[in-house]
UniProtKB/TrEMBL annotation:
<comment type="similarity">
    <text>Belongs to the bacterial sugar transferase family.</text>
</comment>
<dbReference type="GO" id="GO:0009242">
    <property type="term" value="P:colanic acid biosynthetic process"/>
</dbReference>
<protein>
    <submittedName>
        <fullName>Sugar transferase (PEP-CTERM system associated)/exopolysaccharide biosynthesis polyprenyl glycosylphosphotransferase</fullName>
    </submittedName>
</protein>
<dbReference type="InterPro" id="IPR017475">
    <property type="entry name" value="EPS_sugar_tfrase"/>
</dbReference>
<feature type="transmembrane region" description="Helical">
    <location>
        <begin position="79"/>
        <end position="97"/>
    </location>
</feature>
<dbReference type="GO" id="GO:0016020">
    <property type="term" value="C:membrane"/>
</dbReference>
<dbReference type="InterPro" id="IPR003362">
    <property type="entry name" value="Bact_transf"/>
</dbReference>
<dbReference type="InterPro" id="IPR017464">
    <property type="entry name" value="Sugar_tfrase_EpsB_2"/>
</dbReference>
<keyword id="KW-0808">Transferase</keyword>
<feature type="transmembrane region" description="Helical">
    <location>
        <begin position="276"/>
        <end position="297"/>
    </location>
</feature>
<keyword id="KW-1133">Transmembrane helix</keyword>
<feature type="transmembrane region" description="Helical">
    <location>
        <begin position="45"/>
        <end position="67"/>
    </location>
</feature>
<feature type="transmembrane region" description="Helical">
    <location>
        <begin position="12"/>
        <end position="33"/>
    </location>
</feature>
<dbReference type="GO" id="GO:0089702">
    <property type="term" value="F:undecaprenyl-phosphate glucose phosphotransferase activity"/>
</dbReference>
<feature type="transmembrane region" description="Helical">
    <location>
        <begin position="109"/>
        <end position="128"/>
    </location>
</feature>
<feature type="domain" description="Bacterial sugar transferase">
    <location>
        <begin position="271"/>
        <end position="454"/>
    </location>
</feature>
<dbReference type="Pfam" id="PF02397">
    <property type="entry name" value="Bac_transf"/>
</dbReference>
Length: 460
């Protein structure tokens, strides 16, 4: 894993991005050089046109979800995503290279080369997703522990990280009743350092159920680290692997003395400017869709087009969120707040569609412009549910230390849910965002939001 602006990325993901960008730029440079152009012409040209197209393809591939690591994606789905990407990539390539000055030699052929490079990128994305190349450079991980915590680490690694290979479990001194397969325990009479070196371990995850009474061989762990083996605790493991803060395996000390949770006036000012710019641009593009949506709501059912409801915002201050009305006007006629659920019978036909493609969220852009919300942040909840969740879930109030968002890390990583258990899962992603938020992570979340809208993932 590589940490970029506080966010963890797989090395393979970074290599995929660099390969795609490099393929396009290389194709442009190679063609221009083959026509006898000088290097002084090539470099500025590649920077202005090749990199522009490469940047557009990065956005398209991110928005179509090609840089996400999904185990069960079918070849058919990958091909459909690639075709969707080509619908945008090929016209962009044509438009960008149509701007080449008219005195450039072989202008039309150069445009075809750029379009062919776009097609090659999409073909390679499909090939890389299903050829097994993602698992050829897997990290070898040793789990230190054999109890329930170690079993949880092993299960999450196998389920969510195709780049990880578990070499086995190493039992701690006071672990007599293993909860992992005995065949995978590799103590073999060797101490921890010897076992790690023997099995060419890249990383050790410390997942001991009991860490007192001499259970932690600190000298051996230090020797492993000095030998080039990464050593992480279980909380850091979940942060890196699942991009969440697992509240079952974290304590206040880890949160207080670890890095992250950085706030500041400069960061807030830059984020505010970005919020205004993005909200204005989206409103400028989406206003026809919003107008059609308003008409459809008015035609289908009586009642207001917009829906205003009090939610909890930054530092617990309430505000009125604005959304397109997607439920009947008598959705809570008894006055008792209810969780919205999947396939909720209170949702109208128009409401079901606009919720699926997230059009109902667009009026929240006005909340962003007035400063009550941000483009990216935790989802704002109603005071009734916030009070309940704070009393039942530790650290829930931490999510109110940043502005709520139109979209967020929990929204793009976890499907819609309406139970306390779902709230715990989403909180773990929200805590990750609050701890590690940056403009880079905000950009990734907005790109993944496009993929969520296009695929209907987590539709409500």
């Amino acid at each position: 894993m590589i940490r970029i602006f506080n966010h963890y990325l797989h090395r393979q993901t970074l290599l995929q991005v660099l390969f795609d960008l490099g393929l396009i730029v290389f194709a442009v440079i190679a063609f221009v050089l083959s026509q006898g152009e000088s290097a002084q012409t090539v470099l500025p040209f590649a920077a202005s046109h090749g990199l522009s197209l490469a940047g557009c393809m990065f956005v398209i591939n991110s928005a179509t979800g090609f840089y996400q690591h999904v185990h069960n994606r079918s070849v058919t789905e990958s091909c459909a995503r690639a075709l969707f990407g080509l619908l945008f990539g090929l016209p962009l390539a044509y438009a960008i290279f149509s701007l080449v000055p008219s005195n450039t030699s072989h202008r039309d052929l150069l445009t075809l080369v750029a379009m062919a490079a776009v097609a090659a990128v999409m073909v390679h994305r499909v090939y890389a997703a299903h050829s097994g190349t993602q698992t050829r450079m897997r990290s070898r991980i040793l789990i230190f522990g054999t109890g329930a915590a170690a079993r949880t680490v092993g299960n999450t690694l196998r389920a969510s990280d195709p780049h990880a290979q578990i070499v086995g479990y190493y039992a701690g001194p006071n672990e007599d009743q293993p909860e992992v397969p005995r065949a995978e325990i590799i103590n073999e009479g060797a101490n921890l350092t010897e076992a790690a070196l023997k099995h060419n371990v890249d990383e050790i995850v410390v997942a001991l159920t009991e860490r007192r009474g001499g259970s932690m061989p600190l000298r051996q762990l230090l020797d492993c680290k000095l030998s080039g083996v990464r050593v992480v605790d279980i909380a850091t493991h979940f942060e890196k692997t699942l991009a969440q803060i697992n509240i079952k395996h974290v304590n206040a000390g880890w949160l207080v003395f670890g890095d992250g949770f950085s706030q500041g006036m400069l960061r807030a000012a830059i984020k505010r400017v970005c919020d205004i710019v993005f909200a204005t641009l989206i409103l400028a593009v989406a206003w026809p869709i919003m107008l059609v949506t308003a008409l459809a709501i008015r035609i289908e059912s009586r009642g207001p087009v917009l829906y205003r409801q009090e939610r909890v915002g930054l530092n617990g201050v309430p505000f009125k969120v604005i959304k397109f009305r997607s439920m009947r006007t008598d959705a809570e006629k008894d006055g008792k707040p209810r969780w919205a659920t999947k396939n909720d019978d209170r949702v109208t036909r128009v409401g079901r569609f606009i919720r699926k493609v997230r059009i109902d969220e667009l009026p929240q852009l006005f909340n962003v412009l007035v400063g009550e919300m941000s483009m990216v942040g935790p989802r704002p909840e109603r005071q009734f549910f916030v009070d309940e969740l704070i009393s039942k879930i530790p650290y829930y109030a931490v999510r109110h230390s940043v502005k709520p968002g139109v979209t967020g890390w929990a929204q793009v990583r976890y499907e819609y849910g309406s139970t306390i258990e779902d709230s715990v899962e989403k909180l773990q992603y929200d805590l990750y965002y609050v701890k590690n938020h940056s403009l880079f992570l905000d950009l990734l979340i907005m790109l993944e939001t496009v993929a969520v809208v296009l695929t209907g993932k987590g539709a409500r």
